[in-house]
Amino acid sequence: MSGAGLAVAADELVQQAERLLDLWSALSMQHVALGAGCGCGMGGISLRLDDFELDIVDYLGDAGVRCGLPEVAAFFTKFQQDAQEGSAMGSRAQPLRRLLEQSRSGRMPRAVSAWLLPKVEHTLKSYAELHGPKLAGG
């Protein structure tokens, strides 16, 4: 790929990361009612998507480590190690937002962004279709 082609691809990744940050911001604060109409007796439980943020990021990290792409696997291996150290120190705040901001700012290797962003987009769009606002163009 030529230098101009790489620049266009990098710019597209930045734009995708920005769109996903906006979508995450919109979705993460919305409430989702669980247990409505089920026989478990736990009706009325309400959670926000950001309550699932660590689960989403842990899933993405595990998939990244196992994906078979050395650069992606190395990135997520280090990411998981850093997360464990941060968790031990009581800090694991907003990991999905941090990943998206790393991608948007160019601090994430391009290969990792290219692998990660479609997976995040699929996850967030699936959630939005079920629980969130109507997506523009989607």
Structure in words:
This protein is mainly alpha-helical and 138 residues long. The chain is 67% helix and 6% strand. The protein contains 5 helices and 2 strands; from the N terminus they run αββαααα. It has helices spanning 3-28, 53-66, 70-88, 95-105, 110-131; strands at residues 31-34, 45-48. Strands 1-2 form a two-stranded antiparallel ribbon. It is globular. The model has no long low-confidence stretch (mean pLDDT 80).
Key traits:
138 residues
In spatial order, strands of the major sheet run: 1-2
The chain-level structural class is mainly alpha
Total beta strands: 2
Beta fraction: 5-15%
**Averaging pLDDT over every residue, what do you get?**
80
Low-confidence stretches: none
Distance between the termini: 30 Å
Order of helices and strands: HEEHHHH
Helix content: 55-70%
| Number of DSSP helical runs | 5
The main sheet comes to:
2 strands, antiparallel
Q: Radius of gyration over alpha carbons?
A: 17 Å
Secondary structure elements and their pairing?
Elements: H1 3-28, E1 31-34, E2 45-48, H2 53-66, H3 70-88, H4 95-105, H5 110-131
Antiparallel strand pairs: 1-2
Helix pairs in contact: 1-4, 1-5, 2-3
Concise account of the structure shown:
The chain is mainly α and 138 residues long. It contains five helices and two strands, in the order H-E-E-H-H-H-H.
